[in-house]
Design a protein that fits this description.
This protein is mostly helical. Helix content is 84%, strand content 0%. The chain is built from two helices and no strands. The longest helix is centred in the C-terminal third of the chain and has 29 residues.
């Protein structure tokens, strides 16, 4: 079993969400639907990564 407490996943998730938000906003401001879509994908990926980190934390607490 790994000693990973989920922090790495939560950090990666936060970074992905932040990058996604920037892409989404820039895409929206420039009417670039492709960039906006990529931003939404990054935000979703980040949310999943954060949930994985939280699940690891919960698992390690029990």
């Amino acid at each position: 079993m790994s000693n990973d407490n989920g922090l790495g996943d939560k950090v990666k998730g936060a970074v992905s969400k932040a990058k996604g938000e920037v892409k989404d906003q820039v895409g929206n401001a420039t009417n670039n639907s492709s960039l906006q879509a990529k931003g939404k994908v990054d935000k979703a990926k980040g949310a999943v990564q954060q949930k994985v980190g939280e699940a690891k934390d919960d698992h390690n607490r029990h």
